Amino acid sequence: MGATTLTHVMTINPNNTNIHGPVVDEVEGLIRVYKDGHVERSQLVPCVGPSLPLELGVACSDVYIDKLTNVWARLYIPIDTNSKPPLLVYFHGGGFCVGSASWSCYHEFLARLSASSRCMVMSVNYRLAPENPLPAAYEDGVNAILWLRKRIHDSLWAKLCDLSRIFLVGDSAGGNIAHHVAARLAAAADDLKPLRIEGTVLIQPFFGGEARTESELRVENNAKSSVLTLAASDAWWRLALPRGANREHRYCKPVKKMVVTRTLVCVAEMDVLMDREMEMCDGNEEVIKRVVYKGVGHAFQILGKSQLAQTATDEMLCHIDSFIHHCDPL
């Protein structure tokens, strides 16, 4: 119930096997990696430009962060706000290997997030693995914040948002990135001033391990409940981690003893990642709030088309708004 089924078939050039050698790893329908390192990605989701309906009340534009690495960001700016809004720095999902800030599903979701939360959103288009294995995405996230730091005296940015109220936000692999970027920035908090990371919002954050959890086995045995399968999860880690690393690598885990002022973790009940996300919250209730969305699977907020998924997405947007603006506790 509330599941999303992907029926896209990956278009592969049959000559590539001859040119690049055999396929050495893949996530079916999404990505193939050949023996010589050539990477082939499916056009699963269309990429769209930075235009939005006027009635949404959100302006949108793209900006380069680092032309050398081709890292850029899409900005969502609420038009009618009485004061400078907080800034949400967002990292998209896709197993660290696929996805884009210009994917239509993210464009639509983040426009809604900006409008509903009354926040400016900066969606970072970071470098992808396996061409750029971790920690490249973490480095791009840190550099995005340092790029903002250079704009504290820019009169335009001073009007757009409150840079003393930054939240790092992401879903799936992007949730992992937001968490690890926050950990890296925590050690340099004084150097960032007047920028301040107020908290993180982790939407079904992607963590892993060699030992299987109950939710991994349960959801895997009911494959229709979530778009993320156990086999795909394992493959994303193989492609994203440094050479020779396994799923016990520190990049697969929440950072221990990380001090974050406030964190919201959004968990999907029918997600293979559920147990790892719940474990992350255990014992940290003073700073971490978690919400479990019943009957929906991984990435329901961007890929789910059912009424249940739409209702859960509406609830999650309300929870994020309350969390950011210190409204009633969740």
TrEMBL record:
Pfam families: Abhydrolase_3 (PF07859). It comes from the Eukaryota. Residues 88-301 form the Alpha/beta hydrolase fold-3 domain. GO terms for molecular function: hydrolase activity. Belongs to the 'GDXG' lipolytic enzyme family. This is Alpha/beta hydrolase fold-3 domain-containing protein.
